[in-house]
Design brief:
This protein has a single domain, classed as 3-Layer(aba) Sandwich (RbsD-like fold). The chain is an alpha/beta fold. Strand 3, helix 4 and strand 4 form a beta-alpha-beta unit. Strands 2-5-1-6-3-4 form a six-stranded mixed β-sheet. The model has no long low-confidence stretch (mean pLDDT 96). 31% of the residues lie in helices and 16% in strands. The N and C termini lie far apart (32 Å). The chain has five helices and six strands; from the N terminus they run αβαβαβαβαββ. Keywords: Isomerase. It catalyses: alpha-L-fucose = beta-L-fucose; beta-D-ribopyranose = beta-D-ribofuranose.
């Protein structure tokens, strides 16, 4: 246990988040996502796990992970097949965690299901959650932490 670090962030996850650089993608996936097979194709090459809801995992990750301010797709959600504009409760909950972490509204873009799979394969790593609701899959692009003021 560490002070100031969300206890959901295990050593493997913290190591991966620390190793990632600006522009690297992180995937947070629900239990139905093909996480293991996709994770084997990522830069890390292995699956990470946090057995909690997607919103709890997003909150924990975003407590230490800056989103990229240079791109419009730093936060993304898998869109519902045939209903690209529908935002189910699981995605609404994660949206609230993103907004809270960033201190302002930060809308997620939607990505078609198979396009999301392709983005996930190019990601740095995949964290599979314990989220059982459908479409609990998200991509977060890592930003930067500016230097301290001189």
């Amino acid at each position: 246990m560490l002070k100031g670090i969300n206890p959901l962030l295990n050593a493997d996850v913290l190591r991966a988040l620390r190793a990632m650089g600006h522009g690297d993608d992180l995937i947070i996936a629900d239990t139905n996502f093909p996480s293991d097979s996709v994770a084997r194709q990522t830069r890390l090459g292995k699956l990470l796990r946090i057995d909690a809801s997607a919103a709890e995992v997003a909150k924990a990750v975003l407590s230490v992970y800056p989103l990229d301010t240079f791109v419009d797709d730093a936060a993304a959600r898998m869109e519902i097949v045939g209903k690209p504009n529908e935002v189910p409760p699981v995605q609404q909950e994660v949206q609230r965690e993103i907004d809270a972490a960033e201190g302002k509204p930060w809308p997620m873009i939607s990505i078609e299901r198979y396009a999301f799979y392709e983005r996930a394969k190019q990601a740095y790593c995949v964290i599979q959650t314990g989220e059982r609701r459908f479409y609990g899959c998200f991509a977060f692009r890592k930003g930067v932490i500016p230097p301290d003021a001189v």
